[in-house]
Amino acid sequence: MADEEFDDPRLAALYDVLDPDRSDLECYLLLAAKLQVEHVLDVGCGTGVLALLLAERGVQVVGVDPAGASLDVARAKSGADRVTWLLGDAASLPGLQVDLATMTANVAQVFLTDEAWQANLNAIHRALRPGGTLAFETRIPGARSWESWVPSASRRTTEVPGIGPVTTWVEVLEVTEQPLLVTFRWHYGFPDGQELLSTSTLRFRERDEIIASLEQADFTGIQIEDLPHAPGRGWLIRAESA
Predict the structure, then answer these.
(1) What is the overall mean pLDDT for the chain?
(2) Which of 37, 74, 185, 204 has its CA at 20 to 30 Å from residue 142's CA atom?
(3) What is the pLDDT of residue 4?
């Protein structure tokens, strides 16, 4: 089940407005250009920002996401007809043979159990052509990024066209070890006085866990490097399908 911020129509419509700087996607666009890919699978495509940027460059893109409200936002954008949008997850995909598969932002961390994560990697491997590339990012556990997810640091008010000022802030509800899971809640205050909540949980995996899971899914050529837009706080991981 998708979190409310992605599957509640009122919240999904805010996503791009509240996070307009998508320079975090630049590393994926550069990789796609470097590899000269023709077909891309965007797992957890959300409101379709990366998928549409790739489609503008002539790439054939399949975007899959379990949140119907986010896909509705994506389908309403200019150029959306150039992308194939699918409701579901990687395990529900039809037969594909893509050159590149991506998981941007928090996507790789929403798989909380080893079984769900492994099933996702196995499905992506099946969707890649031999020699294809998987690229995704994840936060570094040791950086303890959740310690800054507090109301005083996150509270802000954004003027949303057609709605008015929307105030948002986040709080951490629980941190558990082995596995390392962080549960947090976003608050959205609307000018009509209504407050909507979205609770999420992310799994933080260590480097050796990531490598072992990729190898179990038959990926090779694994590379882990600093995430360009968050050095020291996140990893950019690349692997090739056997």
Answers:
(1) 97
(2) 185
(3) 83
Query: Do residues 174 and 80 share a domain?
Result: no
pTM: 0.96
Give the pLDDT confidence of 154-202 residue by residue, as tens digits: 999 999 999 999 999 999 999 999 999 999 999 999 999 999 999 999 9
- Give just the sign of the alpha carbon dihedral 119, 86, 60, 102: negative
- CB 135, CB 237: distance < 8 Å: yes
Question: In terms of DSSP H, where are the helices of 189-236?
Answer: 207-216
Residue 188 pairs in a beta bridge with 168, 196
Element (H, E) at 118: helix 114-127
| Structural domain containing residue 149 | 142-203
Same-domain status, 183 and 121: no
CATH number at residue 13: 3.40.50.150
Q: Are residues 209 and 156 in the same domain?
A: no
> Identity (one letter) of the amino acid at 171?
E
Residue 218: strand pairing partners: none
- 168, amino acid identity: T
Copy the structure tokens of residue 67. 């949140």
Distance (Å, whole) CA 122 – CA 214: 9
